[in-house]
Structure formats: C-alpha cells, structure tokens
C-alpha cells in the first residue's frame, strides 16, 4: 500500500513563483497526498493565488518568526506517513511522488531518502550544471563527504518518515539558513539516507533567494551547524577548506 505523503510549503511574498509550486504538487500522479501551505501574511499576490486552490490544500495564514517556524507548523499539522517541505519558489518534477511513494512502500526499513534536483534560474532554465554533477558524485560516495565535508543533499528532493519526529523533535528554529543541514545530520544519527539517482525537483536560485544573495552568512551558519555534529579534526579541516573554496568561486562569478 502506498503511503500518504504530506508536503509543507512555507510561503512569504513569492507570488511570482508559487503558482508553479502549487501546480507541481497538485498535478502529481499520486492518489494520497496532503498539501499544507503556511503563509506569513504575504503582501503580494500570493494569498489570492493560493485561494484559487483552497479546496485542494490546507492554508495556514498567520505571522511567524521565520521560515523554520513556518515549516515546523506544517510538520506538526501533517498526518502523512512521509513528509517533506517544498519552498514556494521550487517545484516537483512529474512523477516525483510516485517514485517516493513506491520507494517507501518497498523499503519499510528505510527512514529517509534523497534524490537529485535540477538547479534553475528565475525563468526555470537549468543553471550550475557542474555544481549539480559534483554533488551527485559526492552522494554516490560516503556520508563523510556528502554530509561531512559539505552538505550535498538536495533539500526539496528529500523525504522522511513522519515517525522520526517522535525521536528527533522538529527543525531547529534558531537556524535561518541551514535548518535543512542540521536536520540531515540529526537524521544521519539514526540511519544514512537512501539515495535515488533521478532528479525529483527543481531548486530555484534567483535574486531574492537566500542561496542567491546571502551565501556568506549561509556558509558561516553552515560551519557552526557542522561543528555540532562532527568532532574529528581532519573532517573539520576539510569542511572549512571546502567552504573557503566554494566562497571563492561564488565571489568570482557574482
């Protein structure tokens, strides 16, 4: 029997993208989904757009203390066997939930899985293909590389059993950039992720996204998050060196 999948979308003033996000969820060829949008009282066209789909999703519209708080609100409301979050500027590819549902139905011992993702620009055009291929290579190797040296997990392409929240609690709300990395490291303490090779989602980078204009602050928080879980000096040195190399590349291409 295919599991029920709950998708959480934290939302604030992404009206230019959220329709594509919603359509990508509701058009999935999968019979058992729960879709929850948690909006922080957007002031653009977001809420009227979401309202067009009110009979097919659950909308929570109220002030929050940030993206992580919004995600946690949705996770606490979720009733699905499998959960994930999909940001309001990203989107699922066709067939994603069928692949995820089949995997968990066939592998009852697996707690979480992650797949590949396309990296796209504001218009949905593929970008940063070398970055995508590099992270895909790392995920084919050891967790010490794709979770220790760096975070090579695609956030929108990652799904887990809701039951793990009984053991692990919810996302760390003091984190603004690396709440996903922190969550992966906590999940890793229970079990390494299953890796799916196919792309499941599109991760969008644009002028207003955190990944597009706040990468310096993101890397600072990234190292602080990493250091809470990895004690060995060699892997700490490797992680810091990797962050410096990536930051240098970003500075060159910006």
Automatic annotation (TrEMBL):
Highest taxon in the source lineage: Bacteria
Protein name from the UniProt record: Glycosyltransferase
A Pfam match: Glycos_transf_2
InterPro entries hit by this protein: Glyco_trans_2-like (IPR001173), Glycosyltransf_2 (IPR050834), Nucleotide-diphossugar_trans (IPR029044)
Database matches in PANTHER family: GLYCOSYLTRANSFERASE, GLYCOSYLTRANSFERASE TAGX-RELATED
Residue ranges occupied by any Glycosyltransferase 2-like domain in the UniProt entry: 6-110
MF (Gene Ontology): transferase activity
CDD domains: GT_2_WfgS_like
Keywords: Transferase
């Amino acid at each position: 029997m295919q599991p029920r999948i709950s998708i959480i979308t934290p939302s604030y003033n992404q009206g230019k993208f959220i329709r594509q996000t919603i359509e990508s969820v509701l058009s999935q060829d999968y019979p058992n989904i729960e879709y929850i949008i948690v909006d922080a009282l957007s002031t653009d066209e977001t809420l009227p757009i979401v309202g067009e789909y009110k009979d097919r999703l659950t909308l929570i519209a109220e002030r929050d203390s940030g993206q992580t708080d919004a995600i946690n609100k949705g996770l606490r409301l979720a009733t699905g066997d499998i959960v994930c979050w999909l940001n309001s500027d990203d989107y699922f590819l066709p067939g994603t939930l069928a692949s995820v549902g089949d995997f968990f139905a066939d592998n009852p011992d697996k707690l979480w899985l992650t797949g590949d993702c396309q990296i796209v620009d504001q218009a949905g055009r593929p970008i940063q293909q070398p970055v995508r291929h590099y992270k895909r290579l790392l995920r084919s190797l050891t967790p010490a590389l794709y979770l220790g040296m760096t975070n090579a997990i695609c956030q929108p392409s990652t799904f887990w059993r809701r039951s793990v929240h009984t053991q692990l609690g919810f996302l760390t709300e003091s984190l603004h950039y690396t709440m996903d990395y922190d969550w992966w490291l906590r999940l890793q303490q229970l079990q390494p992720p299953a890796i799916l090779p196919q792309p499941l989602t599109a991760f969008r980078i644009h002028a207003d996204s955190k990944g597009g204009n706040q990468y310096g602050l993101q890397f600072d928080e990234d190292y602080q998050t990493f250091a809470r879980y990895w004690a060995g000096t060699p892997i700490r040195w490797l992680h810091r060196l990797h962050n410096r190399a990536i930051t240098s590349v970003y500075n060159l291409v910006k």
